[in-house]
Amino acid sequence: MAVHIFSVVLTCVLLAVPEASGFYEKGSDVITLTKRNWKREVVESNFLHVVEFYREGCGYCQLLTPEWEKVAKNLKMLVRIGAVDTEKERQLSSASEHGDPSNPINGVPTIKLFKPVNGGGKGSNKNKKEIIVYNGERKAKAMIAFFSEHMPSHVHRVSEKSFADFVKTDVPLAVLFTTKSSTPTLIKAISVEFLGRVKLAEVSKAARSVAAQFNITEYPTLVAIPPHGIDAEVKYFSGKNTFNAINMFLWRHETDMKKALKRRKSEL
């Protein structure tokens, strides 16, 4: 829970730390956010951003730093973990300036989630965010669980009945055959990365006819499927279960399918 201003003054005297150039140095997984990069990094992003508003010289902020570093390392590529120095970025630290006028920053550290709500839609609400103030435990494990729960997801849950309609599209497809009832954080992040580029779905083990159609014998299995009407092979992911590996697999699939769609269009 954020500490009120009058408390911060006392605590920061008792828990004073040496003068430093910043809590999060170059090479840290924590993104240093400023007025200059805020729009690009947060406003225009489809990823969940979680931001710590802190002040150098504040003891409680210093105590949070190693936990914040753990969160950033654990959720790297999945959730964007950032930090704003309220002393250096006074304008950005204003609640109205970062889009949350009803929740002014009355103490530090304050943690806020900036969650996209429109899935990269168009128009004036394209970059709309749901802003959540985190008041939970300031330990990495608790924060990772909370932030993961609030990640946006653009993964369709497809059944045997709806699968045929799902694949009738001119967009490249990817389907995760899974035994889990909830979407893994890694797949949520992949769905954000490929939003509007590759259509992602999950198919449960109960959808036996769909699994048989793709010769699925092991779970989980990620399958890249060509768009409707494109004569191309289905591809099966066999790499490491990491963001970068799946990202490269789907990027190649997307690139190949774009070329195939372009060829088909030129032949019409």
Keywords:
268 residues, five-stranded mixed sheet, single chain, alpha/beta
- Strand % is 15-25%
Poorly predicted runs of 5 or more residues: 1-21
Instruction: Describe the strand arrangement of the main beta sheet, using strand numbers.
Output: 1-3-2-4-5
- Determine the number of helices (DSSP H or I, runs of at least 4 residues): 9
Alpha carbon gyration radius: 22 Å
Please state the average pLDDT score. Answer: 90
What is the N-to-C order of secondary-structure elements (H for helix, E for strand)?
A: HEHEHEHEEHEHEHEHEEH
Could you give the count of β-strands?
Answer: 10
What class do helices, strands and sheet pairing give?
alpha/beta
What is the terminal-to-terminal distance?
Answer: 62 Å
The biggest beta sheet is recorded as: 5 strands, mixed
Shape by Cα distribution: elongated
Question: So what's the oligomer here?
Answer: single chain
**Considering DSSP H and I runs of 4 or more, what fraction of the residues is helical?**
25-40%
Mind explaining what this structure looks like?
- This protein is an alpha/beta fold.
- The chain has nine helices and ten strands.
- The chain has helices at residues 5-14, 38-43, 59-74, 90-93, 140-149, 160-166, 185-193, 208-213, 243-267, and strands at 31-32, 49-54, 80-85, 110-116, 129-134, 156-158, 173-178, 199-204, 221-225, 235-236.
- The strands form two sheets. The protein has a five-stranded mixed sheet. It has a five-stranded mixed sheet with strand order 6-8-7-9-10.
- α3 (59-74) links the parallel β2 and β3.
- α3 packs across α5 (140-149).
- The longest helix is centred in the last third of the chain and has 25 residues, at 243-267.
- The chain is elongated and about 60 Å long.
- The N and C termini lie far apart (62 Å).
